[in-house]
Amino acid sequence: MKKVLFFAIILVCVALIMVTAGFRTIPNLLNPPPDEKKCVGYTIIAFDQGVDCHGDTIKLVRINGFAEKEVK
């Protein structure tokens, strides 16, 4: 009888722990949200041309020996 009562108490305790436990959802690891990236800088491809981070061709001018974006 003691074994049955002990087993019943253990079963009730385990059931109480399982019922009151907060189940967390699994984070979406397969499709994370895209990071917001700032477009800064460019790559020089020719003497007066460059490509910015969006893939657009931009005009460059030489100022003090450095290639910089043409300001309108």
What is the β-strand count? 4
Strand order of the largest sheet: 1-2-3-4
Distance between the termini: 93 Å
Q: H/E series, N to C?
A: HEEEE
Runs with pLDDT <50, length 5+? none
Supply database-style keywords.
26% helix; single chain; 4-stranded antiparallel beta sheet
Short summary:
The protein has 72 residues and is an alpha+beta fold. Helix content is 26%, strand content 25%.
Can you describe what's shown?
The radius of gyration is 32 Å and the shape is rod-shaped. The chain has a 4-stranded antiparallel sheet, with no helix packed on it. The chain has one helix at 2-20, and strands at 42-44, 49-52, 57-63, 66-69. By secondary structure, the chain is of the alpha+beta class. The protein has a domain at 38-72.
List the helices and strands and how they pair.
Blueprint: H1 2-20, E1 42-44, E2 49-52, E3 57-63, E4 66-69
Antiparallel strand pairs: 1-2, 2-3, 3-4
